[in-house]
Amino acid sequence: VMMTCPAHQLEDFLELLSARGCIRSDISSCYDFKTTEDLCRYRDPEEVALRTGLFTTVFPAVRRSSQISKYALAAIKVKDASTQYFQVKHELLMLCSVQGNPSIIGYHGTFKSNHPVAGEMYHLATDWYELDVSWLVSERGSVHESKATEIVTDVIQALQHLESCGICHRDVKPENVWLTDTWTAVLVEFGSAAYVADKARLAEVVGSPGYMPPETLLGRCAGIPGDVFAAGIVLFFMLAGQTPFGEAEASSLRLIETDDELDCGLISDCSEDCQSLVKHMTRSRLQARFTPKDLLASDIVTSTAAAKAKSNAASEPIVVKERGRSFGLHGE
């Protein structure tokens, strides 16, 4: 097929293949970036990285064809080659399956490369945004109710989209909710995602301390309801500047001992509607916990979504001066 593709359409064709999950080997011709060479040159990868995790280091990249710099390349660093391949294949499958929603991170392809020192590596190309909710709260202490509700409304819309795709995220937390320069919340990091029909994978204990739902800690399947619970804790975190449980992994089990309802004492200055939203999202009993559809039909989420749609055209963008230092937060 490639041999018969006109030269002026080749790049578009390759982009289509990337979006469908094909693994490419032409990363250097597509992106200008600092990845494998800098990992070998710098003692501390964070000198050039946007973020560094246990298995992944994320680097900024510039798309050569457009010279647009809002891209991230996630370098997957798993030593075992077969494990690495299946991990990459799983994540790109999840990303490809959930595209098409503004609150889901945009995916642009997976690339395989070989480096004389770093060896075989995979890079996942996605959109990149400067801010995430964790950094926002660390800089501000807490987020105003109106803005926090806007952010969690976007996350709920993302979860409804995932539900329609038959997929759950399983690691919703502040670090995985990025913010665009117009305040749209974007859900990222799909390495832990799974199909809701995959009961064996859903039974695994996956997630982050302080955000895991009780059913996960009890060894039961946690799907979209678990994501809703975690999003509710993210909302609480934005409002209070801390989680309701601290960092203990078993902390959400306290809800079972306290008659199912989260203590909202730390956010008592918020409106009753907002506190009610947090409680509906964090019920320990699955039958009582709201679904994304329920949440999107609630008065506070409906009015928030309508107000945001009306004000988007007039709101000023977030202005970031330098990561980790000062930045302007317009529109709050």
UniProtKB/TrEMBL annotation:
It comes from the Eukaryota. Residues 44-301 form the Protein kinase domain. Coiled coil: none annotated. It holds the Pfam family Pkinase. GO terms for molecular function: ATP binding; protein kinase activity. InterPro entries: Kinase-like_dom_sf, Prot_kinase_dom. This is Protein kinase domain-containing protein. It comes from Polarella glacialis.
